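[recover] target loaded
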């Protein structure tokens, strides 16, 4: 056993994850796309499980930015299809940014009907452990959110100087990604803020009785921040309640899309910096829901919205923040390549994947600087 990865972490990852792009459980669907991704990553399309497992032993030698795919859209609720995001976003990154330095940890193993283990009864957990691990007495979790959080707690303990770039999946996936990140940073004695790009607040307490979903994940990480206003939301424009409600109820800070249009992106940049000044923030995590962008640029998503940010506006904000604060964790969420409710056709997927890869590449580059 190589000494580059702890045996405990290796055992967990080898059971709970699968090769990159394989997180969507299918027999033949997208077979060619998966093989193309594997060819790009490993130089072959056969015996991928073995090649992937061997690659994990070199995680310690890899880049600071570590990709993890979570191909789950069970926490969504409008249009599904974000489970294909990890495969398609990865492929676009490799095509458009071939020199990008990353280590690909693989995909969380996803049973597509499950969300979090706390919603399951014991017989279901037993059956799912038998299906995933061929061992009904396994100690491992079976639902994507629970597996992700469990794996990442061990990841940050073993590799405190590395960061995860998560590719989803619907936005519920950001719950375990950010929760594990924030808890790890607190253990390291660091103060971290979350910069959340989205058309929606994701600040429901629950949705139809479910507390962990795409519309509520932000609410349930607030206790892991040093201060609630260290959650900064950008691009909000689709909400049944005004900005004052969300800021007053939850103590977060929001910058709505219309403020950017009316006052200019530099004004919002200045406001964010003014807010963070004096907060002793050490590092940033960026969670990017692709629907933060206007539907002209990002229609291949579950809830495309008009009057959103342009890619240039989003990148201007990110570049300004990156000039002052290390970005040490990030994610790209809600890219659904087969989905388009705007009528743009095939160009919707192409445009959405292009801008998602552009922003992802920037975030990964920043993570590698730190």
């Amino acid at each position: 056993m190589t000494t580059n990865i702890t045996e405990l972490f290796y055992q967990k990852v080898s059971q709970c994850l699968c090769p990159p792009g394989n997180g969507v459980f299918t027999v033949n669907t997208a077979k060619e796309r998966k093989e193309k991704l594997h060819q790009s990553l490993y130089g072959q399309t056969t015996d991928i499980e073995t090649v992937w497992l061997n690659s994990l032993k070199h995680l310690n030698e890899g880049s600071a930015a570590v990709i993890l795919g979570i191909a789950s859209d069970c926490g969504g609720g409008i249009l599904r299809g974000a489970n294909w995001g990890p495969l398609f976003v990865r492929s676009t990154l490799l095509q458009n940014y071939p020199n990008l330095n990353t280590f690909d940890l693989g995909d969380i193993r996803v049973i597509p009907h499950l969300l979090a283990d706390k919603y399951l009864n014991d017989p279901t957990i037993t059956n799912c452990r038998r299906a995933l691990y061929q061992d009904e007495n396994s100690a491992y979790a079976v639902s994507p959110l629970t597996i992700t959080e469990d794996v990442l707690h061990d990841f940050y303990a073993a590799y405190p100087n590395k960061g995860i770039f998560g590719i989803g999946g619907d936005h519920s996936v950001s719950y375990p990604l950010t929760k594990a990140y924030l808890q790890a940073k607190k253990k390291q004695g660091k103060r971290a803020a979350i910069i959340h790009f989205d058309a929606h607040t994701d600040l429901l307490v629950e949705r139809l009785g479910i507390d962990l979903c795409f519309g509520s994940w932000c609410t349930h990480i607030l206790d892991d921040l040093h201060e609630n206003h260290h959650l900064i939301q950008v691009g909000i424009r689709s909400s049944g309640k005004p900005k004052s409600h969300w800021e007053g109820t939850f103590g977060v800070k929001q910058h709505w899309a219309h403020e950017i249009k009316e006052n200019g992106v530099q004004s919002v940049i200045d406001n964010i910096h003014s807010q963070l000044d004096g907060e002793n923030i050490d590092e940033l995590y960026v969670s990017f829901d692709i629907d933060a962008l206007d539907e002209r640029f990002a229609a291949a998503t579950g809830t495309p919205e008009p009057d959103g940010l342009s890619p240039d506006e989003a990148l201007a904000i990110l570049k300004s923040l990156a000039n002052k604060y290390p970005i040490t964790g990030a994610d790209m969420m809600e890219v659904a390549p087969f989905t388009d409710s705007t009528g743009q056709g095939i160009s919707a997927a192409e445009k959405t994947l292009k801008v998602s890869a552009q922003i992802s590449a920037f975030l990964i580059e920043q993570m590698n600087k730190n």
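[recover] notes: The chain has a mean pLDDT of 95.
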